[in-house]
Design brief:
Number of domains: 2
Strand content: over 45%
Largest sheet: 6 strands, antiparallel, barrel
Number of strands: 11
Radius of gyration: 15 Å
CATH class of the largest domain: Mainly Beta
Distance between the termini: 41 Å
Length: 124
């Protein structure tokens, strides 16, 4: 089985097919099993509570996955920040506190998702 992450909605799914055109079962985007993933590095599935701070606004979210360079998040309702904004993230369970750039945001049936890229400390 091949695990594929949709490049449009970022949801993962599995297929036994190789080289065929496949619609994403989540959003319908037509893709190939051989399409490269845009984010490099290994992702760890990680569902932890996380606080996102945009100025004085604290937004409680859940992590979806995390890597050395960034993380995916989800929450019910609308995210109060947009693509290319800088936010502060705090994951108490993992003792992580970093600045991150919002790379993408999506909304599916009342659930918002976003991809965040960590900003290296020396760049802050």
């Amino acid at each position: 089985m091949n695990k594929i992450s949709c490049i449009k909605c970022e949801n993962a799914f599995y297929t036994a097919a190789r080289e065929s055109h496949l619609p994403c079962p989540h959003c319908g985007h037509l893709m190939k099993a051989s399409e490269p993933e845009r984010r490099g590095g290994d992702r760890s599935v990680s569902q932890n509570l996380c606080d996102i701070l945009k100025g004085e606004v604290r937004v409680p979210v859940k992590t979806v996955d995390i890597s050395e360079t960034g993380m995916g998040i989800k929450m019910l309702g609308y995210l109060p920040f947009d693509q290319n904004e800088t936010v502060d993230i705090f994951i108490k369970e993992l003792e992580i506190g970093k600045k991150a750039k919002v790379v993408w945001t999506r909304k599916f049936y009342g659930i918002s998702r976003a991809g965040l890229r960590f900003i290296p400390e020396h760049a802050c």
